[in-house]
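Quick question, first post here. What does this chain look like in 3D?
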Amino acid sequence: MEAQNFSNKPKITKEWLANKIKENPNKVIGRALLAIFQNQTFAEQTIQETKAANGIGFAKPDARVGSIGARMFATYGTLQNWVIEVWMRPAKDGYPRICKYASQLHDIACAKKARLERNSNLIIL
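> Answer (accepted):
Ran it through. C-alpha cells below.
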C-alpha cells in the first residue's frame, strides 16, 4: 500500500477562502461552520454560546448563528439561504464574514492532515 501525500494542500487565508466560497458557497460555508463548531467545547455547543475566551470556535457574536448553521449542515448536508447570506456579508475588511475564521480553519486542516499522514503510514496485515 502506497502512502498518500497530503502536503499539496494550500494555506487557508482570507483570500483563498473568499475565492473558494465563490465556487460553492453552500458547501464551503457549511463545512467551515461544522469544523469551527466541532472545536467549541461541549457546553458551548449545547447552549450555542461562547463562554471560553480561548480563540477556538466561534466568537461571541457568531456563536448562535454559527451553531445553527453547523447543525443544519450536519443534519441536512445543506444550508438555508439566510445562513449563507449571513456568512457572505462583508466584514469591515471587505471579506465575507466567515473569512475571519480562515486562520482557525487552516489550523484545523493542518491537524486533520497530520492525522491522515500518521494513519496512512500504518501497515495493515
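The chain is about 60% helix and 0% strand.
The CA atoms of residues 80 and 122 lie 40 Å apart.
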